[in-house]
Amino acid sequence: MTRVRGGSVFDLPSIASTQLWVISIVVLLALLTVDFVITRRPHDVAMREAVGWSLFYLALPGAFGVLIWQLYGRAPAMEFYTGYVVEKSLSVDNLFVFMLLLAAFAVPPELAQRVLLYGIAGALVLRAVFIAAGAVVLQSGTWAFLLFGGILLLTAVKVFREAMRDEDYQVDIDSMRSVRLMRRLMPVTGRCQGGKLTVAEHGRRALTPLALVVVAVFMTDIVFAVDSVPAVYGVTEDPYLVFATNAFALLGLRALYFVLHNVLDRLRHLNYGLAVILAFIGVKLVLHWAHGIWAGVPDIPTDASLAVIGTTLVFVTVTSLHADRKERVVT
């Protein structure tokens, strides 16, 4: 696992100087601001608009990786690309849960992208916190790789078991702790009122249903962050690259949701693929920890990781589409 020396706000070796961190965060905030301006006026998202923004947010990490390659060399660029593929694959699973939440809360189509954007902004904040915490843990010793590997292996088993059950995931709004807590704290209006999260009603401030779904999405962000951050630390130890892969993967989720909305349920084998990827990275982290103690233990290179992850995603996509086509023919 390659480390590149350079200045960083963390003590871990990183390609990023403080200036690069500042520039990256400013650009990230600018992109989020543009997204908030676009979604300020509620509207149905046409496929042409969604595809255009999705291509834009796919081109950004592609160009960023080339820039990293030119400035810092092949190794960190490959770590970035591999981490991005891992994060993007995990984010598709996030989208499926977001789709279920939006349906359960009966969010109007024209407000869906606003909810997604709130969720993305919350996810970015949470990922930054988890990335910083992960960097602190890594500084405490190589045992952190064993910890992260164990987390990913346990998560892989959980995801695989859920995939084996082949049950439709159900969202019960009334049983969600976050929703019950918000209803205790403040009254909730009966319907959405544009993109507002709170409104004045009967002389007091009340939440709209939109606020409840935003809180529910935010709570799922916490669960996803626990899995995704250790997964990317399994690819690179550079906190800046971990942050960059998370940021680029999350930024395009709003548009990608509307592109994949009608085909997400057809990716029926996706969870099997995610289980394999998480297990593979978990084993990679454990081997990396062991390699630091016993030199004879192999350390899986980044190129091999990218090949395994990419092959897995292609395979489960092909098998999912084949199974879906076969089922449609039978019915």
Structure description:
It is a single chain. The termini are far apart. The chain has helices at 18-38, 47-72, 74-104, 109-139, 143-165, 177-185, 209-233, 239-251, 253-260, 270-293, 302-330; strands at 198-201, 204-207. Strand 1 (198-201) and strand 2 (204-207) form a beta hairpin. With 331 residues, it is mainly alpha-helical. The radius of gyration is 21 Å and the shape is globular. The model is unreliable at 1-10 (pLDDT under 50). The protein is built from 11 helices and 2 strands, in the order H-H-H-H-H-H-E-E-H-H-H-H-H. 37% of the residues are buried. A two-stranded antiparallel ribbon has the order 1-2.
Which blocks of ≥5 consecutive residues have pLDDT under 50?
1-10
Number of helices: 11
- Distance between the terminal alpha carbons, to the nearest Å? 49 Å
The biggest sheet amounts to: 2 strands, antiparallel
Portion in helices:
over 70%
Q: What structural class do the secondary elements suggest?
A: mainly alpha
Q: In one word, what is the shape?
A: globular
Averaging pLDDT over every residue, what do you get?
82
SSE inventory with pairings:
Blueprint: H1 18-38, H2 47-72, H3 74-104, H4 109-139, H5 143-165, H6 177-185, E1 198-201, E2 204-207, H7 209-233, H8 239-251, H9 253-260, H10 270-293, H11 302-330
Antiparallel strand pairs: 1-2
Helix pairs in contact: 1-8, 2-3, 2-8, 2-9, 3-7, 3-8, 3-10, 3-11, 4-7, 4-8, 5-7, 5-10, 7-8, 10-11
